[in-house]
Specification:
382 residues, mainly alpha, 4-stranded mixed β-sheet, 71% helix
Length: 382
């Protein structure tokens, strides 16, 4: 009880700093969600396709272009490599088809000419890829039995007419769940920043040389002291978690009043405990108040960039994603992504999310053990 009273006393002395920092991070979280709520969701049933045709626009080539055009949104962009790359990067197009010179002639001669494609690896790009593959495969089938180009085109087009209407169908509120995922993904940065900054700031008081020596000569066991400090810090971390939960209900009422919302809340709670254990460990390592800002920048910002809090993880290089596996933030953000795509709720669909939460719990245990080891070592050398 003495430790808890002392903790509350220190906490109240820093109340304005804590309030300012917490409000600032929460506001950033809301702004980030509103800035990204339209950029990561696709609602159209057709892909945005750019066709670059280096062949003559006739025969099989014309038929292919007409088929893609009738089932896609054709985007016109100047034939410039830099502008085309920018269009793909900023999702102005989902799929780029580059028909090579002499495609028609080579195709009819059975040379199997290759069409160069570029894609964004999202759902619309798969639709466009299926359209292209379907036409080439169907026309290639008729080419084996028919020598007349016009007949090949006619048969191909008639066959494809029976199965060309492709719609993105889902019972999920994709737009709402995308906003929820963005909100909770950004909480990775705000939870880490808030907990590391505030908890480390408070721990510097208890790590003060005079207070530390008094604790050592007292009858208080270091494990019991760590446990009491962890509980005290935990109350602050849970308060920050509650603020986020309340805000999520205010901003995302419909999504939060569902099983998806419950999973988001549980996932954030487990990550909050992980963040608490990280912050407690860092608080044991340093007594330097000036170093705290550096740790916030390195850990909170670093893990947010590496693990997909700011930039969706599917757009990150593979080697970055491999590194991200070593960080708790990765498992938290991956779970948010899986929650946003759940259409049914059973053990099989929830298993990946439960696995990720288990990984976070393992991190908590590891960080707690290391904190106790550091405390024991410092008591010996004090």
């Amino acid at each position: 009880m003495t430790v808890f009273k002392a903790y509350i006393k220190v906490l109240l002395k820093s109340k304005f700093t804590i309030l300012l920092y917490t409000v600032m991070l929460v506001v950033f979280g809301i702004l980030n969600m509103q800035m990204n709520d339209t950029g990561m969701n696709y609602t159209s049933s057709k892909a945005d396709v750019l066709i670059i045709n280096d062949d003559e626009n006739k025969g099989v080539t014309k038929s292919l272009i007409d088929y893609i055009s009738s089932n896609s949104n054709i985007i016109e962009i100047e034939n410039d490599k830099e502008k085309i790359s920018d269009a793909l990067f900023y999702r102005d197009v989902n799929f780029i088809i580059n028909i090579p010179k002499n495609f028609r002639t080579d195709f009819l001669e059975g040379k199997n000419p290759q069409i160069e494609i570029q894609r964004t690896n999202d759902y619309p790009s798969y639709l466009a890829y299926n359209l292209l593959s379907k036409y080439i495969e169907t026309a290639g089938y008729y080419l084996e039995f028919i020598n007349d180009e016009n007949q090949i085109i006619k048969n191909t087009e008639e066959t494809l007419k029976t199965n060309t209407n492709v719609e993105i169908s889902s019972k999920l509120d994709n737009d709402g769940l995308s906003k929820a995922k963005t909100f909770f993904n950004f909480s990775n940065y705000t939870m880490l920043s808030g907990c590391i900054f505030i908890i480390c700031l408070l721990m510097t008081v208890f790590n003060n040389e005079k207070i530390s020596k008094r604790t050592i000569i007292s009858s208080t066991n270091y494990k019991a002291l760590n446990r009491k400090l962890m509980i005290s810090n935990g109350l602050f971390a849970i308060t920050l978690w509650l603020i986020y939960v309340i805000l999520s209900f205010i901003i995302l009422r419909k999504q939060m009043l569902s099983f998806h919302g419950l999973l988001y809340i549980i996932n954030l709670f487990v990550f909050t405990l992980t963040t608490l254990s990280i912050s407690f460990l860092l608080g044991k390592i340093t007594n330097n108040k000036e170093a705290i800002n550096g740790m916030v920048n390195v850990i909170a910002l670093g893990s947010s960039f590496l693990c997909g809090s700011f930039v969706p993880i599917e757009y990150l290089p593979k080697f970055v994603v491999n590194i991200a596996h070593l960080l708790p933030s990765y498992w938290f953000i991956i779970s948010n992504g899986k929650i946003s795509t759940l259409e049914s709720f059973n053990f099989e669909t929830l298993k990946p999310i439960l696995f990720n939460m288990t990984i976070l719990i393992i991190f908590i245990i590891i960080f707690t053990i290391i904190s106790n080891i550091i405390t024991k070592y410092k008591r010996k050398i004090a």
